[in-house]
Structure formats: structure tokens, C-alpha cells
Amino acid sequence: METVKKTLRDSTPMRWFMVVLVSMLMFSTYWFQDFFSGLKGLMETEMGFTSEEFGRMIGLTTIANMFGMIIVGGIMIDKWGVRIAGFAFGGLATIGATITALASYGFFGESHSTQLVLMVVGRIMFGSGLEVVCVVATRSIVKWFKGYELALAMAINMGFGRLGSAMGIALSIDIGGNSVPPAVAFAATLIGLSLIIFIVYSVFDVKLDRQVGKAKAEEGEAEEDFKFADLVKLITNRSFLFIALLCVTFYSAVFPFIQYAPDLLVNKFGFTYDLPTGINYFQIGGSTALGNSAIFIGLFLFGLAFSMIPARMKTLSLKVVSLAIIFTVFILFIIGLWPTLSVWLHNGPKTSSLIPMGTILFTPIFGSYVDKKGKAASLMILGALLLIFAHISLSVFNSEILGYFGLLSLGIAFSLVPAAMWPSVAKIVAENRLGTAYASMFTIQNWGLGLFFWGIGAVLDLANKANLDAIRAGEMVYDYTIPIGMLVVLGIISIFLAFQLKKADAKQKYGLELPSGVTPE
Q: Which domain holds residue 352?
């Protein structure tokens, strides 16, 4: 009787432990990517930044990736593996974050122009590593989970990134003590710590490679080297082309918006940047910042519990009971913290942070649905529709209630599309070329991100040109109608591309509408 040889990836606890380790890079890099969002107003008053300069700093983060840095990283991943690429580009992101932090303190010179230039340089270096780090994390998840709970694992990995975004947006003012430099230094430190954790991951990854390599040698298998013809095949594949273009239009309507969402809520609906004093906030050890952090981690754990625990119950009755218990505890959690949460709902950074926080709850649920039911292309269409509703609600109307529904819709859309998109790529592209595929998608995506990160700030200044002096004096507020209206157009294009993807898949038969592990006839 033949003995089935097990590897580390065949152990369920080990697979999920690897998710936690590799996802710390996602957590820290997404924190650094988005934490400036909660500091825009403070950067204007403390450091003299304009909206255009803020957008320029954020937008130029993507410049190296626009011109192929991610593809270089993707080829490195496919040719030399995730570990070398992870250390190389994670280290680059750490150095860039450190330069940004030092520049914010005036280490290279205290003039506004010097600080701006060096912070831009640091962000460019950080951005050069950021997207490849994301590819490393995604590629690692595929390596450990293909044939298992791939969509759910990807969703949870993405959840760590969203948790980093949410906490960065919401807590930067708390951590910085209403000052920009300490918040930047904290964010840079997180990336360095996550790189150390990646070393721990690499130890297990080396062992898995040895196990898998030995098994392939015994079976006479060998992987082909990367060829540039593979890149040509990717960009001429209709399904891959549509999903790559959908990636750029969808994310360009979400990530740039998140950078400006706190400022929009403050200017349009009268939200605050600072939490009001004299309220009994939830604290840990007398620290409101630690208390706020614990709330986010608690919400994250509830998101995991809702998506994972009922799914592992063997009978319907156990699923219902477990879901009821989790929901009851969740309601008690919200009630107990309502004095704090109710204030959050009128604070720009805290409310905006609920967009990525919502994805933590919904993305694993949608990821599990894609694993079991499929319908990935259809979910991308639904996500694009929700995106349009969200931006119309926030740009055209002045209703605070409708604004909350818009933010909720954006959070759900932000969950639907990634949960369906990233596992779909693994169906379209061979596993040993996924690094190049994801890198190509991120490269195209960065053209859109760079344009709209910078463009929203520039259009915001242009649309309010006649009132800029009064706005900066606190006598008037920004009008965000035109900048956010541009994102509605991206939503319309996203719907078109999602329909085209569904049509292409029907012809090419990759099985995007089928559950994980099911191949089309």
C-alpha cells in the first residue's frame, strides 16, 4: 500500500500560522500606505502642506511601480522565490519609511520644501517595495493553500492589510499626540518589526521547499524557468486583460478616496479631526490610544469568527447556534463600547477607518462563498454597482444618513471585488507564473492609483481655487463634489469590464463562476 507523504502545508494549524506570519507584512505596509489619510488636516496646519502637495506625496509613492518595479519583483519571485524577494523589497520599504520619518522630523533640513522633497523620496522608496511585498504575501498564500481554503486564506490575508489601513487612519492622531512626526516614526517602526517576523516565516518556508522539492525530484518533475514569452501570453489573454483593467479602475476608485475620506467628512458633514474631551472613552492602562487599538483588534477577531467558526461546524444546527452565539457576543461588545463608538461616528478619521474595517468582516465571508459557490465574476459586477452608489451618495447629496450608507456600500464593494478577483487570477494563470501575473496587475493598477492619488488633491485645489485662502483660514470648507464625482466614472467603467470578464470566461472556460477545486467541463 502506497504511503502518502505529508508536507507542512498539509497541516491545517501550520497553514493558518503561516497566514498570520506573512500577513504581518501586509498589516504594516498598508498601515504606512494609508495612515497619512488621518493626518491631512494636521499636515496643512503644522507643516504647511496644500491639498496638491499632500496628493503629490501620496501619488508619487507609485511612480517606480508605474515603470515596471513590480514586474521586476514578480520575476524575482518566480525565479528566486518569495524569500529573497520578500527580504529585498521589504527592506526597501523599511528604508523608505525610515527616510520619510526622518524627513518629517526635519532631520535633513527644516524648510518646507526640503521636508516635502525628502518625504516624497522616502515614499517613493517605500512604494517601490510596497507592491512587491503584497505580491510576496499573495504568492505565499497560494503556495500554502492551493487546493485548500485558498479564497478564504486570501481574504484573511487581505483582512490583515485592511486592519493596518483602518488602524493607521484612525489612530495616527492618537499616537502622534496631534503631531505628525511621531505618527510617521511609529508607522515606520511597524514595517521593520514585520520584516523580522518574515524571517520566522522564512524558516518554515525553507522546510516546505525542501519537502516539496524532494517529492518533485522523486516524481521526476521540474519547474520551467521564466521566459519573457510568458509575459506576452499574459497580456494577450482576454480574461487576464479584463481582470487586470478591472483591478486598476476599481482600486483607483477606492484607495485614493480613502486618503481623502476623513477630510471629506470633516468638510462636507462637519465631522471633527480630534476626539472631543470630557468623555469617558474606553481605555487600557489609562491610555485611550491603547483602548482604541483594542477595539479595532476586537472587531477584527469578530470578523474572523463570523467567517470561520460557523463554516467549520459539521451540521446546520451547530452552524446556526455558533452564529447566534457570536452575534450575541458581538452585540454586547458594541453596546459596552457604545459611548466610545458613538463619538467615533462623528469623527472623520475614525469613521473613515470603518471602510477597511468593514472589509475585515465581509471579505472572509465573501471569500468563503467564492470557495464553496463560485460566482466570482458576478460578484465583481455587484461590487462595481455598489461602488457607483457609494460615490454618488458622497458627492452629489448632502445627507449625512445617506453618506453613512455610501460608506457602508463602499466597504461591502471593497470586500466583494478582492474576495472574487485574487482567487480568480489563480484560476487563469499557472501557479509558477503567478508572481509575474500579480506583479503585472499591480503595475497597471499603480498607474491609476498614482493619477488619482495626486489628481484628487490637484482637482480639489482647482475646484476650490477662488476660496483657498478662506478655506485655509478656517472660514470656508472644501467642496469635494467634482473630485469624488470622477470616481463615479471609474465605477461605470468597472461594471463594463466585469461584464466583459464574465463573457470572456464563458468562452475560455477558466471556471470563474465555479467553486474552488471544480474544473469546467
A: 12-213+225-274+347-508
